[in-house]
# Entry
Amino acid sequence: MPLFRRGDHGTGSPARAAPPEPVPPTPPASPGAPSPQLGAVSASPPGALPAHPSVPTAQESAPPPPRHAPWSPTAPPGAPAPVPATPTSGVARFPTTEGDLPCGARGCPNHSGVLCHYIDRRGRRCDTAWCPNHWATVGGIVYCRRHAGTIAAIGYFDHPAGMPDVDNRAPSLVNWVARDLDAFVAATLVQSATQGETFVREPVVSTHADRSGGRRYERGWKLVDHTGLRLVVAVYVVEGDDITIRVRVGSGVVAEGIPPWVERHRRGIEVPEETDRAQRSLFYAFLQKHIVAAVRANRALDESMRER
# Structure
């Protein structure tokens, strides 16, 4: 049955197939030159076989980008990641020790002060300056004496909760009092130790969550045995009341008070050096008296428990 082109509607003569257009001959390739049809898909005459599947695609035939080419999120697949630069943000830089600020020490005429390098958890910096005669250093860094005490008390390393507030004296005060009480408390606990107990001294001030909702800074001495903790003596200061020293023996507070040198500083009172020594001796004698009494009471309770 003869075929008709669409639009003839059955009238007229049957359609004849148009003769194929002649295909121009492919010029011969010169030796060593790539084929002009490589990587391209040309129109094939009816009945021609499809292109060979091994013909490379444009992505496969494209040369790779240079090794250090700039990278972007829209880089083509297969592009190498950028080579990272050498990090510099983690390099510690030694701060200057040459200053021209007036020294913060009372009565000091020097104008060679350097700012204290203490920065607290809120990003606030201590704004006091001190000359070489009155500054303190920890790890080669200049601080005021209070914040040098803070750094020495809790250690050199970063803390998850950050450094104490710039106006918080608690860690420094705890460390100062613990240092002065160390020999006395160590001797008291060692003398009261029973067979199998070992004396342990905490090397730095530790941080704890306090019942008041803030933080508590504490340093202590312990007697331990194979079962665990037997007795602890600790001095601590809470964050919300950073001028009061409290002494804990076992689980109870046995003494507390504001050190006389802290009270004088608050009130702006100056006393002769011998008066300062006498007041400090009275304060420590008060704490020592209550420490000894509490240790003896705890040891007597332990002894009565063993006899049952």
